Amino acid sequence: MKRDRQYSGGENFDLQTVLLRGRRLRLRQRVECFGDFLRGLEQRGELTTMREVTSAADREVIVADRASGSHGRMLMFGSNNYLGLANHPLVIERVRRTVARFGAGIGGPPLLNGFTKLHRELEERLAGLKGTENALVFSSGYGANVGLVTGLVNPDDLVLYDAYSHASFCDGLRMSGVEAHSFPHNDVAGLEKMLERLAGGGGDRDIYIGAEGVYSMDGDLAPVDRLLDVCRRHGARLILDDAHGTGVMGPSGRGSAEHFGLEGSVDVTMGTFSKVFAVTGGFVAAEKPIVEYLRYFARSYMFSASLPPAVIAAVLAGLEVMEREPDLRTRLHDNVAYALAGLRVLGINVSSNSGIIPLRVPRGVNIRRAARRFHELGIFVNPVEYPAVPLSQQRFRISMMATHTREDIDRLIEAVEIVWSGERFPEAVVPVPVRRAV
Questions:
Q1: 49 within domain boundaries
Q2: What share of the chain in percent tops pLDDT 70?
């Protein structure tokens, strides 16, 4: 088959072209087209995905460099390991003891042979964490959101969801076939107008509102208090994805509802173990009848093998550390404040109430080249580019950890100054010597 040379991996070859034109191509052409795209990135040193980490997940990691083949130390600002639980001594010891007792895996789904004493204990602890009657554990966060939506809603129901909702929630909506409409991000007034227009007299169908406690791309919070008020007045149920809020938000780390003083008020809460607990898996917490119903009607729960005992032990130990060491959460938020102050010295005004700091990249700047420069400076930070976000909203997502030191954050700020000035960002100020944030 003759290859279409318009898809060669040249300087102007971008992912937008691949996606838009690729829709009209057969599979072989699409694969070759995307292969050219990746090769072009690698040839220019702009491929920063799938970097090979050869050490434990920590504030500093050892990373293999594609270009040179060498290994170097980098400061990790791209991990959701917010409290440093991935490498906490208590977590590591509990995992070791659990593997010695229960083995490496289970080999079955929870409804058959995959439900152990550890799984029951974790579900009870998670229900207590979220102030609900019960909880169930999924083998992935993606599976939790998909299973929650497809198991809970009927095609005749109505779901209104925030435009920034996670892809897993949106995929669940598509699979369910439910009538679903997105409302502008955090626009409660807009949501209420949609409810009045679409819900009408309510009828016999159920109405659900979907939102996230902390939005992963911007680090901003959902107005949970106002959303709950709308739900109560319109007879709707709130589904809250608290993946990035659990362990981070609230006086005791119980999540976004606790942050607003509304612990136990959310109808259905979804969370993951891949953020603050730094492993894998997800959960749904709600009143007992809903949870027991989902055990049989959430297909991603029924037809997936249970999480290994080691993962369950890691989450249980993480919950214990969160209770024993509340200073970890305090240090995380102190580190975020310190980093924000340092960025403001450079004229970069961003805000965050969570562990995520979004660093917007003005349109027209080569975000991949900037990402490579961060890599060369020993700063591991993730570029978020189209189509994950619109072209006009590409950014670097800085993920802070409680274990970062002030010196680590100073190096991050110095790297931002170097990269910003080197890329000649139109919104950047004239470079000045970096002053330590106070």
A1: no
A2: 90
β-bridge partners, 212 = 241
Residue 348: pLDDT over 50? yes
- Single out the catalytic residue among 88, 166, 244, 404: 244
Dihedral sign (CA 236, 242, 246, 251): negative
Domain assignment present for residue 365? The answer is yes
Asked about 244 being catalytic, the answer comes back as yes
Please name which of 368, 265, 362, 297 lies closest in space to residue 151, comparing C-alpha atoms.
297
| 258 and 341 co-located in one domain | no
Tokens of 190: 């807009």
What pTM value is reported for the model? 0.89
User: Mean of the pLDDT values across residues 93-112?
Assistant: 95
Active-site residue, from 259, 275, 375, 404: 275
How is residue 432 written in tokens? 């000045």
- Return the ∠ at Cα 400 (arms to 414 and 166), rounded to 5°: 120
Catalytic annotation present for 275: yes
Report the pLDDT value the prediction gives residue 407, as an integer from 0 to 100.
Answer: 98
249/155 same-domain check: yes
What are the structure tokens assigned to 12, written together?
């102007």
| 344 contacts 398 by C-beta, under 8 angstroms | no
Contact 259, 249 (CB under 8 A): yes
Strands (E), 228-375: 237-241, 268-272, 282-286, 356-360
